[in-house]
Design brief:
This protein is mainly alpha-helical and 396 residues long. Helices cover 63% and strands 3% of the residues.
Length: 396
């Protein structure tokens, strides 16, 4: 509730109340108390108010990108079609950034309006199911880098950022065992190399998750607030907005002259979108991984900082990274409008320095190397485990 205190009066949340903490239990640690003061200051300065000008210009930028994509498909040459595919990937990335802002209620500060924007920008524009995303992303913010809870790091049997995954895990999010069979150990042994090819096809999994939740897992994924009367209307809105995406993408493909070009266009646009998957992974994959939730013992600020990093970039490149380069500030203030993240960063650094909390910031390439090193470390352990299991099999 640090990020959304206004929800304390929500009837849906009151129905889920399980306990009342004593004053001693509820008392924050020193870093969390300082965080609360900083958050109050940012509110008093008006930094949480909607950034109307920024998002108006952003809407114009998205319209320009989409028109450029459409126009390039009308030109009768291969270079224009390649440009169209790359621009489409950029449009998806930029729309996803704005959809992420809306999903956190950071665009208009109105829940219904931001939800509608989430459907427009996530489902209709980029094909990313808002229902699926919100379900996983809420858990991710509560328990970042938790092996058991955070679906954003549960990618078995293809990737694992911690050795615990090599013997399989139980996912509290999926309510199911995620096995790691012997063939998967062979894949994991080379995961630091396979990561980049996997990023090129990761979008297909993203699209599938959105459709799967709407068609088969609505009740399973949407509990509490989303199971209230009217949730079926939300489900219908999800389905219709996803249909808009698949309709316009199919129309784009139909404008191409042959099946081979349609296949190449799909492959290139989806592979280029892998840049966004890389940006998302850099924020967390090289940071501390925990077995469950340590929020109670470590405090909110330490929990978020332990699992998150920032990377530096020139202010003129902020548009390309969509606020993900300030992941620390975003995790501390999820509803803070994106254009204010850079402004708040020095104050967060000062807070961390005052309370001895590591504020991990590095360059984009260095952050990539850290993720590769993390995956390689687990890959080496996967190779050792394969050798161990092979030796045990021969002994038997």
């Amino acid at each position: 509730m640090n990020a959304h205190p206004e929800l304390l009066s929500s009837p849906s949340l009151r129905a889920l109340q399980v306990a009342v903490l004593s004053p001693a239990e509820a008392a924050p640690c020193a870093a969390d108390a300082a965080y609360a003061v900083l958050r109050a200051e940012l509110h008093a300065e008006g930094l949480f108010r909607p950034a109307w000008r920024f998002y108006a210009l952003y809407a114009a930028w998205l319209c320009f990108l989409f028109c450029a994509v459409w126009h390039c498909t009308t030109l009768n040459n291969s270079a224009a079609r390649v440009a169209s595919a790359l621009l489409l990937a950029l449009f998806w990335q930029q729309a996803a950034f704005a959809g992420h802002d809306a999903g956190h209620g950071g665009v208009t500060r109105n829940t219904r309006a931001d939800h509608a924007l989430g459907l427009l920008l996530g489902n209709a524009a980029s094909g990313v199911g808002a229902g699926w995303w919100q379900s996983t992303h809420n858990v991710h913010h509560v328990a970042p880098n938790s092996i058991a809870h955070d679906a954003d790091i549960q990618h078995l049997p293809f990737l694992s950022i911690h050795a615990a995954g090599l013997r399989g895990i139980f996912s509290e999010y999926h309510h199911d065992d995620m096995a790691c069979p012997r063939w998967a150990l062979r894949v994991l042994s080379a995961q630091h190399v396979l990561m980049f090819p996997l990023l090129c096809v990761a979008r297909f999994g993203l699209l599938f998750q959105g459709v799967k939740v709407v068609l088969w897992e609505w009740r399973k994924r949407h509990t509490g607030l989303f199971c209230a009367p009217g949730s079926q209307a939300v489900r219908l809105a999800e389905a219709l907005s996803l249909a808009v995406y698949y309709t316009y993408f199919a129309t784009l493909l139909c404008r191409l002259p042959c099946a081979a070009e349609r296949l190449a266009y799909t492959a290139l646009s989806h592979a280029a979108f892998g840049v966004l998957h890389l940006q998302i992974n850099l924020s967390h994959w090289s940071r501390e991984v925990v077995p469950g939730r340590r929020h109670g013992e470590a405090g909110f600020v330490a929990t978020q900082l332990g699992s998150t990093l920032n990377w530096t970039c020139h202010p003129l490149l902020d548009w390309f990274h969509g606020g993900l380069q300030f992941q620390i500030e975003h995790h501390l203030f999820p509803k803070l409008p994106r254009p204010h993240l850079r402004r708040v960063s020095p104050r967060v650094k000062a807070l961390c320095a005052a309370h001895g909390i590591c504020y991990h910031e590095t360059g984009f390439l260095d952050a990539t190397r850290e993720v590769v090193a993390t995956l390689r470390g687990v890959a080496l352990q996967a190779r050792a485990l394969r050798t161990e299991l092979a030796a045990a099999t021969k002994t038997e």
